[in-house]
Write a structure and sequence with these properties.
about 190 residues; mainly alpha
């Protein structure tokens, strides 16, 4: 039997924001963890990563990854039926596929946004942060708190843009690439 690991929010945060100062060689181990493949399968796919099992156990001990299951216990839920006979194959993952995102309309882009170094007014920055917090809450649910703290700590447009790009990586890993692209497109005005 071989463990199946998944990245924790700390691990996703490390990939997106480089916040834990994890050495680059260990980040490469963290990146191969997908929550689906067992350690044995990962070792077969990534033979260039020596001592994979020992390193993953170390990353688990530090809280970057966690055991999601054991290869022998993986069940194909597509074959399972609920009490009314409906197939379970339509259900997937723990993150919502299509989360409705509710947020106030951001302020209209003005000429001042296009000039480098300009910061948003306090009210505009707060509105973007508020909208971003609502979006992150809808996409990450119970795991949103550390990301929300990063958003709240932003003091300038550049800080918020940098944080948004890291959050985009987290959403790609946690939810989907499509959700991450939609999230980033809502806040593209921050890049100018």
């Amino acid at each position: 039997m071989s463990n199946i690991y998944r990245q924790t929010l700390k691990g996703i945060d490390e990939i997106a924001f480089k916040s834990g100062n994890l050495p680059l060689r260990l980040v490469s181990y963290l990146l191969v963890v997908d929550g689906e493949a067992s350690v044995d399968q990962l070792a077969a796919r990534h033979q260039n990563l020596p001592s994979l099992q020992a390193v993953l156990q170390g990353l688990s001990g530090q809280g970057f990854i966690e055991v999601a299951g054991v290869a022998a216990n993986v069940v194909d839920i597509g074959q399972m039926r609920v009490s009314n006979g409906t197939s379970m194959s339509g259900f997937s993952g723990n993150a919502p596929q299509q989360s409705p995102l509710y947020y106030a309309s951001p302020p209209q882009q003005t000429q001042s946004y296009a000039q480098p170094g300009n910061s948003l007014s306090g009210g505009e920055l707060d509105l973007y942060k508020s909208n971003m917090i609502r979006d992150v809450s809808a996409l990450l649910a119970a795991d949103a708190a550390p990301v929300i703290n990063k958003i709240q700590a932003c003091r300038t447009r550049d800080d918020l843009f940098s944080t948004m790009m890291g959050i985009k990586k987290i959403i790609t890993i946690y939810a989907s690439r499509d959700a991450a692209e939609k999230f980033a497109s809502r806040y593209s005005v921050l890049s100018s």
